[in-house]
Amino acid sequence: AAIEKGNFEHYMLKEIFEQPSTIFDCMRGRLLLEDKKVYLGGIREYIDQLSNAKRIVIIACGTSLHAGMVARYLFEEICRVPVEVEYASEFRYGNPVIRDGDVVIAISQSGETADTLVAIEKAKEMGAIILGVCNVVGSSIPRASHAGVYTHAGAEIGVASTKAFTAQLTVLYLIALQVAKEKGTIDNERFKKLITELDLIPEKVQQILENSYIAQSLASLYMDAKSMIYLGRGYNFPIALEGALKIKEISYIHAEGYPAAEMKHGPIALIDEEMPVVFIATKDHTYEKIVSNIQEVKARKGKVIAVVNEGDDVVKHLADHVMEIPETDPLLTPLLAVIPLQLFAYYTGVLKGCNVDQPRNLAKSVTVE
Ligand code: G6P
Fold this sequence. Notes:
5-stranded parallel sheet, binds 6-O-phosphono-alpha-D-glucopyranose, Glutamine--fructose-6-phosphate aminotransferase [isomerizing]
């Protein structure tokens, strides 16, 4: 059946607004709050291999790679396993070292991305266990994998990925939590706190969406920018990359994502009164550092847009504009912080008259090299 846009002007907007329910659907039957447990049927036969893995290698492209980059911080923090994240296109033509006991996680919305498919086939030949995190059921990557977890986000029509990304993140959180519990690298209190917070994410995403007019008004202020810089640290660094990717894809504004502290090694040279800098400045152990980065940008007359936690008066006073998100565990912030950035990119693209559902030169699924 044809997928309708309903009351939405574009598929992309519809898909952004579907996220409270797609994240919820993704956790259904998997996050068992009452039993204090996470259960993923798709990887039940491989949970031992995953828990005993000496290393996890994550392979993906585009937005899916950014989900993988969040997962790196996550698996390292709560599962205490080294993780590498590789562009599929680099992995396939490189000479990667795959050792016994390595687990490869391939992330792909379509399940058809040629580079990702070839990369996992190569890793499989080298003896790795391949787990897929895909959206399209029965697609090539799940079929080439040993096992996997579907993201259940429903069909994504907009070329720029939104709801599939948050569903990928949700699956990766679930996998990491199950593995951490299995390995005993997380204590019961922390585990309980994280599953409780994860369960609250859909309603918090809903709250952000109810304030979408803020992203819309910022879009009208910055739609003529020639370039933008996106900065974040830790869990929010991949979200800075994703925010920059979204604005490039949808509005054709050049943008770069950077780890905030790397700003002084290059991007700071670009800052003047014409340059909008988007910070993800939520409350975690790097917050004070980000605050000083914001001051550095302001001292050079850059325009600062900051994604902050509700009630953050410090950044509100420093920044030109803020987009607020509810508080959650710092580890889960990516699921919330990306939402205002999706909205900002969407509205900027619409105001510029771009074809947001079908940006020029891009394809939904890149099945050729
Ligand atoms: C294309 C799409 C992106 C997507 C990337 C990876 O570039 O336009 O939205 O993130 O491919 O696709 P996959 O289906 O493997 O997630």
